[in-house]
Structure formats: C-alpha cells, structure tokens
Amino acid sequence: MFPALVMPPASLLMIAAAGLFLAWRGRRAGLPIALAGLAATWFFGTFLTAHALVGWVESGQRPFDRAAWDTARTGTAPPGAIVVLGGGSIVDGPHSPRRERLTPWSVQRVLAGARIVRVTGLPVLVSGGPPPWAQSSEASLMRAMLEGELSVPVRWVEDQSRTTSENAALSAAMLKDGGIGAIVLVTHAFHMPRARAAFEAVGLVVYPAPHDWLSGSVNPRSLRALWPTAEAFALSSLAVRELLGRLWYRLIGAN
User: Fold this and answer.
1) Helices 104-120 and 138-149 meet at what angle, rounded to 10?
2) What is the mean pLDDT of residues 214-234?
3) Is the pLDDT of residue 2 over 60?
4) 69, 111, 167, 182: which is deepest, by most CB within 10 A?
5) Cis ω on the peptide bond leading into residue 9 (within 30° of 0)?
6) The predicted structure's pLDDT at residue 1
7) Stretch (H or E) spanning 202
8) What sign results for the dihedral spanned by CA atoms 166, 115, 241, 229?
C-alpha cells in the first residue's frame, strides 16, 4: 500500500487534502498548499509531463538488433544466455477452476525474448515468482507461453523472486552454476536501467535488449498533451516508481 501512496496522483491529492484541512482549521498556509497539490496533480496527469518523465527514464538505450548481437558475440565476454524478466500476472476472470495469465507487460517481454532467440540462438532463462494473490509463478506462465505457443525452449526457470534485485541474485546463481557470466537481458526500456544495474551488481556482464518504448508517441504541441488523463497518470506513476526504485537500489547498494 505504501508505494501506491507516494505515486501520483495519490500523493498529490493527499497534499491537496492536507491543504484543505489546514485551511478549514484557519491556517493561512492551507489554501496555497491545496492549490499547489491540485496544480501538481494536473501537471503530472498530462501527457506532456508523462512522456517527458518516461523519456528521461528510457534515455540512452537502443534496441538489440543483429548488429548488436554481432558485437556482443565477438567481444571479450560473449553472452551465454537470454534472461527474460516477468512483468506481472493476474487472475483471469471469476472462473472455476481458477485461471491465471500474464499481464500485457509480461506478454510483451515474452515476445521480445522470443525475437532475441531467433537472432541469437541462445538458451533462455525466465525469472519471476508468484505474486501474493496467485498460485502460479510468472516464470512458469512465461515458460508455458514460450514453449507452448512460440515453440521456444526454456532451459532455466527462476520462480522465487519478488523484486528486480531478487530476479538478479537468483538468476545469477543458476547461470553461474552453468559457467555463464554474461547475458542478454530482456525487459521494457523503462525498466532496463534499474534491471541492468541489479544484474551487474551480482557480477554478470549484461547486454541490454530493451523493447516497447513508451516515450515519444505524443505531439507536445497538441491540446491533448496538456489535458489530464488516466493514461498519462499511469505513465507518470510508472516513471516516478522507476526513478524511486533506482534511488532505493543506490541507497541499499544494489548497484
């Protein structure tokens, strides 16, 4: 619950509510605080702000194409595996028996991982444990999709991790047992900087394979970019979460 409270718009609306409470109690600072909270809510709810934040999070990355693979495989530490990170799973409707499936984030990562397999031919590790509300791990669902629907074999299944740092630590233990010290890492462009840092922190050489950029799709001069929307709030919250996650990893020494 706490992470949700520090993300926009909840944190900003709490500031506005606190200002209104202070104003009701006769405090002169209350109204300015309330107005600042409402203005910040509008600001973070626009595509102009959301795409600027996501662009910052995603900056400096390129897709992993055949040229990148040629550079990686002929370098001093060629990758020996592809690691695909889970992006969430959910309960699929009120059915009995219970059904569970990957979220769109996870599906995109699975598809991106399959594309990298076609380019490189490297073996695959999938990483992701079960969320508290699910019985199946993300890794098991990703393996089922890769093997059953995309005809891509999975060699390793890391199905205990709950965070990106755990993805890295548990995956590295499996790979190092097999003598692998370099990987192609598959995750969304917005998540890649934090994920790459976590995997490098556990001693792996990482060749990033980011995919599905979220920035750059809105004309900043359009009126739509200046109007608050639920989709823009979601993007802003995503970017703020990644930035706070990077800060937290630095504080705990994860990178």
Assistant:
1) 50
2) 78
3) no
4) 167
5) yes
6) 46
7) none
8) negative
Radius of gyration of the chain (CA): 21
Residue with token string 């934040």: 53
User: What is the bridge-based pairing of β-strands 81-85 and 89-91?
Assistant: unpaired
Between 59 and 223, residue with greater pLDDT: 59
Name, in order, each residue with C-beta under 8 angstroms of 20's C-beta and a sequence gap of 6 or more. Answer: 30, 34
3-state secondary structure of 128: coil
Give residue for tokens 């998540």.
191
Is residue 107 a contact partner of residue 85, using CB atoms and an 8 Å limit?
no
Share of the chain above pLDDT 70, in %: 94
pLDDT at residue 255 tops 80: no
Please spell the DSSP secondary structure of 102-156, one letter per residue.
E-HHHHHHHHHHHHHHHHH---EEEE----TT-SS-HHHHHHHHHHHHS-----E
Residue with tokens 């059915």: 95
Please tell me the predicted confidence (pLDDT) of residue 102.
96
Work out the burial of residue 150: count CB atoms within 10 Å of its CB; fewer than 13 is exposed, 13-18 middle, 19 or more buried: middle
The candidate with the shortest Cα–Cα distance to 124, out of 160, 159, 85, is 85
Burial category of 106 from C-beta neighbours within 10 Å (exposed 0-12, middle 13-18, buried 19 and up): buried
Residue carrying structure tokens 């769109």? 104
Element (H, E) at 91: strand 89-91
Question: Two tokens at 47?
Answer: 């595509």
Residues 6+ positions from 32 with CB-CB distance below 8 Å: 19
pLDDT tens track for 95-106: 888 889 999 999
**CA-based angle 159:189:9, to the nearest 5?**
90
Quote the pTM value.
0.89
Q: Are 41 and 8 contacting, i.e. CB atoms less than 8 angstroms apart?
A: yes
